[in-house]
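Exam revision sheet. Question 4 asks you to relate a sequence to its structure. Input first:
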Amino acid sequence: MIEKQEKAEVHIKYKELEKSFYATLEETWLLLNKFFSKYLPQFEIANKLWLNVDIQQLAKDCEGIIAFSPEGANLLIPKSKITDNETLLLWLLAAYLGHRLGLTESDTLSKEELQTKLGKNSKITSTRLGELVKNDLATKTMDEKFRITTFGVAQMQREILPKIKTKLNA
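Answer key, structure tokens:
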């Protein structure tokens, strides 16, 4: 007499990776262990290298520097205390944060909007924006607007916002 072995069907989806198994219980267990032992370490390493933005922490980091009103984003820091590049990055960060929090419609700003906010002529604004793009802190979109990059947000959190806060307290 042949004993019928029960089979299990398992479907695993982790981010972009999917795997399905249909096998005996013992084989399924072995395949699952193999899957996790093979891929989980790679996921853990990749996650450690991946730039993630914690919006809640970013909002805390921006307290006293960026604020939102019904009219949109505002910088609470005098222009005289920060550089042109810091000013442009703060405006781009405000657009990013406002959009992620649902307070603004877009996370991009046009060169003209940034020029007005910076209070400098077109040539200076273009030069400064070019520097930010060259350093991967900002990017130019298909519709000729500017957006802060994920790397730019990370740099703001790690280096630039603490430097700005130090300037404020000086």
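Marking note for examiners. The chain is about 55% helix and 20% strand.
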